[in-house]
Write a structure and sequence with these properties.
The chain is of the alpha/beta class and 267 residues long. It is built from ten helices and six strands. Helix 6 links the parallel strand 4 and strand 5. Helix 5 runs parallel beside helix 6 and helix 7 packs across helix 9. The relative contact order is 0.14. It binds adenosine-5'-triphosphate. The site of adenosine-5'-triphosphate (ATP) has 20 residues, from helix 3, helix 7 and helix 9. It comes from Tanacetum coccineum. Belongs to the AAA ATPase family.
Length: 267
């Protein structure tokens, strides 16, 4: 089991992330190069945002890209889930927040990743409202102490940006917001390519065409990953040495679309 606030350098590389090209460029700029060449930024007096919010539909690479950023920067990565913080630390949420930030400082450079930031919002009529309020207040104190958190970058993630506590969105907090969309048809091919790197793939499999096919319409990265795994499983069961185009079975996309027609088309 994972200890709260445990840090390590993730093994996700840029090449494991398909698409998301402009997002990657932003992060190169805002985080990776700042960690790698701090003197240059200092010399030019560049003072950029250190807090980010990734928002968009589930399974499209928010966690993945945050890990890749840490890996590329050679930084530690701490993964915190919003709801965990709430449930687990009722009554001592503030202390938990302080501990997490102090851990992040001691292992800087560090990416502090807050999943499901929307959970840190007081909902009307909720018993635990006061817990949330105190937790958010402590979070604001830590976020605002930017001088003390040198080398600590904050990345939040959410599927429901509209539910986030507005105070958290100000500059210096989760100040820079970046949209992580559902991949388009060409990006689906790029994601399949990234996912296929560690799989034995037959030369006749055209991942670009699969990505462009309507059968994968509205597929998220997570859906494409499931498709790739199903195909690998089938290949193994049928004792085929490599994943062939026809081994990919039907996988339901989150939107209810299915890859079946594509698969049939390949047979
Ligand atoms: P959630 O909002 O549900 O937390 P998320 O946006 O953080 O989702 P990830 O956890 O990053 O999504 O993605 C889930 C899995 O889907 C990844 O581990 C990876 O296998 C695959 N995946 C998603 N997006 C991509 C992508 N752009 N490139 C390669 N793989 C991807």
């Amino acid at each position: 089991t994972r200890r709260e606030g445990f840090s390590s350098i993730p093994n996700v590389k840029w090449e494991d992330v398909g698409g998301l090209v402009s997002l990657r460029r932003e992060f190169e700029h805002y985080i990776v190069e700042r960690i790698k060449y701090p003197d240059e930024y200092e010399e030019f007096g560049v003072d950029l945002e250190t807090g980010f919010l990734l928002y968009g539909p589930p399974g499209c690479g928010k966690t993945l890209i945050a890990k890749a950023v840490a890996n590329e920067a050679g930084a530690n990565f701490i993964h915190i889930k919003g709801p965990e913080l709430l449930n687990k630390y009722v009554g001592e949420s503030e202390r938990a927040v302080r501990t997490i930030f102090s851990r992040a400082r001691t292992c800087s450079p560090c990416i502090l990743f807050f999943d499901k930031v929307d959970a840190l919002t007081k909902k009307r009529g909720e018993d635990v409202g006061w817990v949330v309020e105190r937790l958010v207040n402590q979070l604001l104190i830590e976020l605002d102490g930017a001088d003390q958190r040198k080398g600590v970058y904050i990345i939040g993630a959410t599927n429901r940006p509209e539910e986030i506590n507005q105070a958290l969105l100000r500059p210096g907090r989760f100040g820079k917001r970046l949209y992580v969309p559902l991949p388009n048809q060409d990006e689906r091919g790029l994601i399949l390519n990234a996912l296929a790197k560690k799989k034995p793939l037959d030369v006749d499999v055209d991942l670009v065409a699969i990505g462009q096919s309507n059968a994968c319409a509205n597929f998220s990265g997570a859906d494409l990953s499931a498709l790739m795994n199903e195909a690998a499983m089938t290949a193994r069961e049928e004792r085929i040495a490599k994943i062939k185009a026809a081994t990919a079975p039907a996988v339901e996309g989150t939107s209810g679309s299915s890859s079946q027609s594509f698969i049939d088309g390949m047979r």
